[in-house]
Amino acid sequence: MLILRDAQHVFTGTAAAPADGLEPGGDVVVKDGVVVSVANASTSTTGRTAEVLDALGCVVTPGLVNAHHHLLQSAFRTLPGTRGVAMRDWLPTMAAAYSSVGVDPELAHAAALTAVAEGLLSGVTTVADHHLTWPAAMSTDETVALAAATASAARELGGRLVFVRGAARDDAAQAAESADAIAESLAPAPGGLTGDGMLQVAIGPAGVHSDGRDTFERFGEVAARRGLRRRTQANEQVDVAIALERYGRRPIDLLDEWGWLEPDVTLAHLCDVTDAEIALLAERGVTATHAPGCDLPMGWGIAPVAALRDAGLPVGLGTSGGGSNDAGHLLADARLAMQVAPLAGRPLTAREVLSMATHGSATGLGRPELGMLAPGSAADLCVWDVSGVADAGVADPVAGLLWANPGRRPRHVVVAGRVVVRDYALVAADERAIAADLAALLTARRP
User: Fold this and answer.
1) DSSP notation for 105-139
2) Residue 41 main-chain phi, psi, to 5 deg
3) How far apart are CA 50 and CA 196, in angstroms?
4) Alpha helix locations (H) across 122-229?
């Protein structure tokens, strides 16, 4: 049993709780990886068998869920020629960097360790890795090994991973065969989720700008057979431009025709969408992922998040990868999403955006047990110290999590009832050793 004791406030993320999910303090009690209660713990739970984490002066929230990342890109941040350039220039620059280093399980493992560690240290307890980089010479078995290496990194550190077998201009038949093999190897149960809930497999091409109907349909067949969630990227401005040039149609029209506007589908980005397209997505039960930390520097625009939410679409939040964002700090991107929202619609409140970074992202992954703190939910949570000068004068401690202290990191992080970050440090590894190992690997491989 684990007790988080004497929190100043607990943001449960559930609409049924007072003040939009804000409990006025108390304890969070965890047993066997799930939340037992969010209230003052009874004296019966304070015996010697309970581990206690001091949450005095802190706000407790659900663990953050990063619904869109590219973990491999954490090895390729701030590369020359990747900032302030068009997508047509960015893609070959990144491809050349991948080729010069060599993408294989060793690199995937080192990059994933770095990215998952960065996420955990900033409060991300679940991350979805849309892996799009598959060397053409890779066999199906080698792709399984790469996926397994990524999954191993997350498990070593105690984080949850959703591995999304992506495709980007890959052979459709080979990519679908690989996706099927990865699901069979990593999470063979229907739904693509391991029994402990720590690893999930999903599927999804990069987008209509890079993949044709054959790839979407073959991936859809694998997803239907195995019950996997589907994810893709849509309606960045470049995506719209290429779709119009190549097909004479907009991406949402193509996805509709190709069977990819269904309740099991999540679309990332959605910067350039019309009112009619938003209404169609809502009608079909599609979910969305907002990624402002990528979309803004890449010049793709700002998704109309308020309009999407007001239409009834669940909207999650993602950082995207290091090649476009350079950081995996989801709370910082939540702050950015809140700040830029008035440029694309009505303002978003801090609670709305925090719910996007937790329950909204979890909904898109088909994981209702994540992203909230209520009896029976997964015991994934963060403890944020709000007693320092960065939070002095803050009237609303939940709003302050986003408005104040942009580089905020949690004091403690718990995943599935296990403490994985304690007093701002990883429990299972040394973050500096992880960074040094990746640096050494890149140095040894680069020409």
Assistant:
1) HHHHHHHHHHHHHHHHHTTEEEEEEEE----TT--
2) -70, 140
3) 22
4) 140-157, 172-186, 213-226
Yes or no: say if 271 and 251 are a contact pair by the CB < 8 Å rule: no
Angle between helices 105-121 and 431-445 (to 10 degrees): 150
Q: How far apart are CA 364 and CA 358, in angstroms?
A: 10
**For every one of its 447 residues, what pLDDT tens digit does the chain have, with 9 covering 90 and above?**
999 999 999 999 875 444 455 556 779 999 999 999 997 655 445 555 789 999 999 999 999 999 999 999 999 999 999 988 888 889 899 999 999 999 999 999 999 999 999 999 999 999 999 999 999 999 999 999 999 999 999 999 999 999 999 999 999 999 999 999 999 999 999 999 999 999 999 999 999 999 999 999 999 999 999 999 999 999 988 899 999 999 999 999 999 999 999 999 999 999 999 999 999 999 999 999 999 999 999 988 999 999 999 999 999 999 999 889 999 999 999 999 999 999 999 999 999 999 999 999 999 999 999 999 999 999 999 999 999 999 999 999 999 999 999 999 999 999 999 999 999 999 999 999 999 999 999 999 998
Q: Of 368, 408, 363, whose CA–CA distance to 386 is shortest?
A: 408
How far is it, in rounded angstroms, from Cα 278 to Cα 298?
A: 23
Radius of gyration of the chain (CA): 21
Contact 49, 360 (CB under 8 A): no
287 touches 316 (CB < 8 A): yes
| Amino acid at the residue 208 | V
Residues in the chain, overall count:
447
Those residues whose C-beta lies under 8 Å from the C-beta of residue 94, and which sit 6 or more positions away, are 73, 76, 79, 82, 323
For the record, the structure tokens of 130 come out as 């849309």
The number of beta carbons lying within 10 Å of the beta carbon of residue 87 is 17
CA 442 to chain centre: 25
121 close to 426: Cβ distance less than 8 angstroms: yes
Written as six digits, the tokens of 417 are 């009832």
Q: How far apart (Å, rounded) are the C-alpha atoms in residues 81 and 89?
A: 8
**Residue 29, SS3 per DSSP:** strand
β-pair partners for 290: 317
Which two three-digit tokens encode residue 160?
A: 């949850």
The residue type at 175: A
